[in-house]
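[step 3/7] inverse_fold.run input=structure_tokens len=422
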């Protein structure tokens, strides 16, 4: 490579990506996200193929092969609007059956060169077409031809791309959207959230399900499709299939009621020991209400019980495991909750439905930190000033110390050292 640059190969699924070690944006944690996209697209493509075959069998010759990586003239079309290295597009081409065409687009010329190299390396030139254009322009230019699926995976907020995506999506098409600015969505920056999403986010324990309103009151999931998806994943060779099946099983168990409580947060309000999840769920079930987990939180309590019954369960548990009421202020919310008369008799006897099947089967239902100090990856540098030899993060390391050393008299030790020597 020119300039001493080294190149390595990243393998994910059936794709191989050629990358420059110093200039790649690859987040291995997002393999779960990409595996899910592959699984959903595969199921959609198969269903569309079966429907097309049933209608057109007498007039159109159908390729009987369902092998991925083969171009199907009557297959689906996919747009990956923000492609970067082209990883998603290449995985779709090599793992999703019944595909006619995939467009891998990026606004960065350097990224498009990388996409071209990766397409050639994976030998899928007949399936994937590189595109160098602004994402919204590509989508608006295809409002007439339209795509069966549009994939949006930006670094940060996807909202600016949604209008174009919807307009270039065919009727009954699939929109895959990834948002990587969870801190904004979870209430850390309400003003920023309003600018980007037109809603004010609230910092609450149910932040993964609500941007402050309006609240979605209809069904959250298409349960028959989710069950089909589980069945199809069990036959696929995906790295994260165990977690996919675990999460989707939680989804099949999840109630279609909005929002959820978090168990440890509920008990911390009244300064009381936290019961086991099975005990708390039994209290609600024995009182005649439904309860489930939310796929968004491992300690979630999603229920159709009214708030007063939730506090009845909390009060009933506190009677068995008393809080130190003498430490609660006379005007504290905790004392007000604990001294309020209960409306229901609560029993913590084990209920048969308190431990859901996904938990009994020890499924991998929630994300575990894959590495120490795990967090979001750094933004890609492909559209940043390439004359910079070091990243912004590296340049800012010890910046306050550097500033002090630059302004201090020549040869004088740092202030902390001077004080320690006195």
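[step 3/7] decode complete -> sequence:
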């Amino acid at each position: 490579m020119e300039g001493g640059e080294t190149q390595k190969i990243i393998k994910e699924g059936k794709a191989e990506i050629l990358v420059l070690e110093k200039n790649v944006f690859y987040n291995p944690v997002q393999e779960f996200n990409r595996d899910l996209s592959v699984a959903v697209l595969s199921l959609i493509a198969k269903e569309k193929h079966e429907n097309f075959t049933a209608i057109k069998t007498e007039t159109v010759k159908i390729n009987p092969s369902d092998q991925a990586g083969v171009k199907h003239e009557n297959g689906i079309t996919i747009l990956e609007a923000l492609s970067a290295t082209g990883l998603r597009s290449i995985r779709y081409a090599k793992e999703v059956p019944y595909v006619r065409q995939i467009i891998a687009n990026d606004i960065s010329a350097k990224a498009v060169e990388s996409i071209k190299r990766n397409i050639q390396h994976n030998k899928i030139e007949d399936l994937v077409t590189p595109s160098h254009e602004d994402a919204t322009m590509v989508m608006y230019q295809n409002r007439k031809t339209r795509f069966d699926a549009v994939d949006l995976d930006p670094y940060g907020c996807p909202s600016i791309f949604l209008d174009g995506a919807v307009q270039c999506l065919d009727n009954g098409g699939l929109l895959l959207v990834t948002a990587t600015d969870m801190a904004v969505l979870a209430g850390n920056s309400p003003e920023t959230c309003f600018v980007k999403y037109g809603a004010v986010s609230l910092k609450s324990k149910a932040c993964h399900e609500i941007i402050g309103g309006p609240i979605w009151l209809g069904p959250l999931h298409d349960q028959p499709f989710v069950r089909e998806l589980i069945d199809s994943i069990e036959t696929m060779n995906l790295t994260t299939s165990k977690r996919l099946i675990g999460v989707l099983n939680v989804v099949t168990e999840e109630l279609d009621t909005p929002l959820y409580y978090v168990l440890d947060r509920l008990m911390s309000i009244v300064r009381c020991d936290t019961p086991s999840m099975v005990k708390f769920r039994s209290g609600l079930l024995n009182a005649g209400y439904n309860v489930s987990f939310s796929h968004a939180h491992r300690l979630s309590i999603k229920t159709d019980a009214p708030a007063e019954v939730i506090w009845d369960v909390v009060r009933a548990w506190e009677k068995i495991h008393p809080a130190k009421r003498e430490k609660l202020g006379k005007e504290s919310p905790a004392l007000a909750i604990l001294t309020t008369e209960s409306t229901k008799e609560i029993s913590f006897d084990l209920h048969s439905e308190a431990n859901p099947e996904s938990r009994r089967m020890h499924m991998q239902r929630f994300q575990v930190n894959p590495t120490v100090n795990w967090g979001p990856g750094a933004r890609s540098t492909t559209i940043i000033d390439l004359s910079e030899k070091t990243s912004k993060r590296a340049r800012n390391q010890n910046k306050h110390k550097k500033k002090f050393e630059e302004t201090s008299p020549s040869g004088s030790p740092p202030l902390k050292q001077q004080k320690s020597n006195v």
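[step 4/7] annotate
The longest helix spans residues 31-56.
Residues 29 and 372 are 13 Å apart (CA to CA).
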